Amino acid sequence: MNNTNKCKIILLTGYLGSGKTTLLQYILKVQNLYQVAVIQNEFSDEMGIEAPLMVDNNGDIFDSFFELPNGCICCSAKGQMMTAIQYFIEKKPNIQFIIIESNGLADPSSLIKELWADQGLNLPAELATIVGLIPSHKFKTLYELEIFRKQIIHADLLLLNFQDLCQEDDIILIEKQLKIINPNGKLLKSVRAQIDIQSIFEAEKADNKIFDQEHIHFEEVGNIAKIFLNIDTPNITQQEWNIKIGQMLWEEDLKIMRIKGLLFCKDEQVMYSLQGVEDIFEITPTNLPISNQQSISKILIIGQKITEELIKNIILSH
């Protein structure tokens, strides 16, 4: 994931009607700094509906466009998506970004895990940023849906769209709720998905952020809980971290949807990044030096059936 020469993948997620296609059209229309390709999902086998609507900043029809049928890059079209990524990179070697627009009912966790797995097999592209679009005016209703909550949890960048259709008090309440279930996501607000697009192309990946919470705390919204640990781990090596995180995800009766963090690893010179989605995770070195010789690890866990006591016991057990 640290190979800067790889093509960057930007994943657009969001429920039906959240503004993903509008954002995509806006990006292609106004940006002229990068070589970009697009992979888009549709439910219908009658393809070609969206492609003619995509134009570049010169007003010409955007030609680096690939549509996947049946609306599910997380299922039957998964292999086609990887083929499309390979095609763009081979035929257009100057491509810098591939934007994937998932359909509104897609669970992003399956796609994220697939991209991580293929990165391990030398896929010439890496998942750089996950953008989650949220229709502000439908938030209260959609929050009851598990798929909607997953789209929020996995996002690096949360775009609160259609804010003009909500009262300011409602927006404040939505922001508070988003901060609880995805405290590390960067939050932007928009009308018709019009934002500074550099915030997408130059988004700071969540695994390079230093979490700013300073204390252990537990919060719960509905049936989704969040635990943040700021814990001293001076004697845990990278290999031991792999064992402990694996135990959390595979052996215990926990339902972890998302886990991320910055880990101190014994005998290493830099901090290590932890990124995990459901039953897949990776621990990789960052460029962040260990500050002031401190051995503090910071871990964020979002899921169900999780408790501070159990997580701490796993981490601190010998």
UniProtKB/TrEMBL annotation:
Catalyzed reaction equations: GTP + H2O = GDP + phosphate + H(+)
Keyword hit for Mitochondrion: no
GO molecular function: GTP binding; hydrolase activity
Domain (CobW/HypB/UreG nucleotide-binding) ranges: 9-186
InterPro entries: CobW-likC_sf, CobW-like_C, CobW/HypB/UreG_nucleotide-bd, P-loop_NTPase, Zinc-reg_GTPase_activator
GO cellular component: cytoplasm
Pfam families for the chain: cobW, CobW_C
The keyword Nuclease appears for this protein: no
Keywords assigned: Chaperone, GTP-binding, Hydrolase, Nucleotide-binding, Zinc
Positions of the CobW C-terminal domain: 251-313
Cross-referenced PANTHER family: COBW-RELATED (PTHR13748), ZINC-REGULATED GTPASE METALLOPROTEIN ACTIVATOR 1A-RELATED (PTHR13748:SF31)
Family note: Belongs to the SIMIBI class G3E GTPase family. ZNG1 subfamily.
Name by which UniProt lists this protein: CobW/HypB/UreG nucleotide-binding domain-containing protein
Organism: Paramecium tetraurelia
